[in-house]
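Last lecture ended with a question: if I hand you only a sequence, what can you say about the shape of the protein? Today we answer it with a concrete record. The protein is Molybdopterin converting factor subunit 1. Below, first the input exactly as provided, then the predicted structure, then a couple of comments.
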Amino acid sequence: MRVHVVFLARLKREAGLETASLEVPDGTTVRDLAALVEQSHSLSLRGCMVAVNETYARPEQVLAAGDEVAFLPPVAGGAAPELETRCEVRDTPLLLSEAEPFLIRPQYGAQAYFVGTVRSPNQGKVVDFIDYEAYAPMAIRVMEAAAGRAREQHGELRVLIQHRIGRLRPGETSILIGVASAHRRAALEACDFLIEYLKAHLPVWKHEADQDGTHWVDGQSEHPTL
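The predicted structure:
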């Protein structure tokens, strides 16, 4: 059977390609495929997470013909009602002036926002820029799931989550989270929950250029890894 492999962030650069199509035997697991990819592309996938068809998967999961398997380095840093949630991964600036018209509604008396920007200096080093990469289709799913979890904890909410990709300079906004609720505490606590959840689960990577050169920013692994 044939499966489709997606390389992201540093793996894309190390492999020299973004996707590959491989013929594998029936019964092949994620771990089996990882070993084959390591051998055929001279990569180390140790510590990487895996997504099968845009959903996090365990190494022992058995693959099916036509599956899309994405190998994800550790990331840096119930479906929600469609009309109450807006989730985006985009390469254009993130603006509060665009978020407010979506969030402000008569029934919601409180809005809370988190705006994350590129910081310099970082760990004592002057940052020139950061290149952000994302596994965009899966990132949208993770954002929507996060909004759903926030509602389970804090009730009726209107949620906006946006993440920017591409090259950002110090001071530019990389992530914008907005929450509207009937009451202040729910909006603030839901916004805080979303920040922490997305830091651990969102498939986004940062390639930072500072005074010493360029490097991938160390990430987190909240899911099973290889």
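Comments.
1. Helices lie at 10-15, 30-41, 96-103, 136-154, 184-201.
2. The CA atoms of residues 164 and 174 lie 5 Å apart.
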